[in-house]
Fold AraC family transcriptional regulator.
Amino acid sequence: MKEFEKVGYLNHDFKMFHILDRQRKIYEFHYHDFNKIMIFLKGNINYTIEGKSYLLKPYDIVLVNAGEIHRPAVLDDSEYERIIIYVSTKFLDSYSEKDSDLNNCFERAKNEHSNVLRVTSLDKSKLYQVCKELEYSFSDNAFAKELYQKILFLEFMIQLNRTVISNHINYLDASLGNSKLLHMIEYINENITRDITIDHLSEHFFLNRYYLMHYFKEETGYTIGNYITEKRLLLAKNLLRNGCTVTEACFQSGFKNYSTFSRAFKKAYSTIPKNAQYLD
């Protein structure tokens, strides 16, 4: 299996796509270093995120946090249509006041252990109306286009968070979740700042170390080492953006060696750690 890679790049606060696949495609596991919102419109799709799988229905909203590995599995030859929004974590963080935290929808989804929101009559809602206005704005060249897009995007995020807060939604249970993989991923994320070795994981889960490595790679597209490194780098990037020194970010994110951290950071983000404030 080929090495798992980050895909997609975001050079703006947000980007929007309306995609229709008329022919069946096979998607590899992938991740982004920005957040992703998908409004599913049609198709027969099983969507897997960090070991949890969801059978989607039209107008489900899928929330994928930065760094979460995911892929859609297309189950038949039906057309696959969706609206996708990429949003910068840095941009969302700039709107994180107590009474107006636009990250709330992502945080609540984490707390509910579900990445999929099922909203009653979403297609008739103010949220969907704003979404369509935002989509149209990308093909409109009227006065103050970019400013208008930003206003619409902020309204979209406000409406999304209001919908979540009002509890007019259901958090979709994972339908085909792989419990063994889920427990591994949860354990790694809960202990990401500690010393996690293959032997330690093998002992903890009562699995042969070679079977464990093969199984994790087969199910996620990641080697265990790469998965841990990517999660630590995302944590370090956030620590740096929130004022930690490079040395503090290195060790607080679980790296044991500064030179290893620096090389990994530069490879992942094409810049040195002290420039983290300029990253998404």
User: Anything to note?
Assistant: The longest helix spans residues 145-165. Residues 193 and 254 are 4 Å apart (CA to CA). Residues 1-5 have pLDDT under 50 and may be disordered. The chain has ten helices and eleven strands.
